[in-house]
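Researcher: Next entry in the queue.
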Amino acid sequence: MISKVKKAQILSLLNSGRRVDGRTLDQYRNIKVETNLIGRADGSARVSIGDTLVLAGIKYEIGPPFPDTPDLGVLTVNAEFLPLASPTFESGPPDENAIELARVIDRSLRKAEAVDLSKLCLVPGKSVWIAWIDIYVLNHDGNLIDASALATSAALLSSRIPQADVEEERVKVNYEDKVPPPLSKMPVTVTIAKIGDTLVVDPVLDEEEAADAKLSLSVVEGKLCAAQKSGEGVFEVEELQKAASMALSKGEELYSYLKTLAGGT
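Model: Structure for this entry, 265 residues:
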């Protein structure tokens, strides 16, 4: 936990419109996006936001659909906090923080309708493509959600799915011939922390620990599509409106990192 002295320093700086690392209140740290780093994955991306580093990998496999959606493919998101990323991360099964991160990314993709799951169906009720999305936190210095969302969207955009032909409900897969997956609207996420009475974009770890609350807003094509609030503090109506405006503005900035990718938005 952050010390009282450090928190008081952060609050003092914010009251004068400054942050611990010299950024403005609505400024992201340096962002870098790299794709196709994992040879055996069908798509991958590594994203750094400042010193926060996240890797996302995509793997497409054929399997059965869910019983209640027999004509839709399957999208599964998992997140793992590697012990090397932070002294607070421990080895073993995913904890509640990793589960929450995976759910936020999953919800963002579904609300944005990023993947056309109907086109991942091969034989209704029997065979569909399953898109496995694995997120690995490699270094934690705050704002894991935005880095993970950007890495996931970049990995999907750079991914390729094996060509599959169906003859009399028999699926034949050509793993050497790959095509772009059926993607549509790719989301990004903008996280805003409330520290005292100040809202800041892209909080570093010290700012997260000093924050009363955080709000992660998913943006797609200039619209908000999902939200996740954490922390015990509250956002007043005016603060929510300001946060939404900040998210829409900064979302366009994040989109610029996706537009250069093959099949990008």
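Model: The chain has one domain: 4-255.
Researcher: Noted, moving on.
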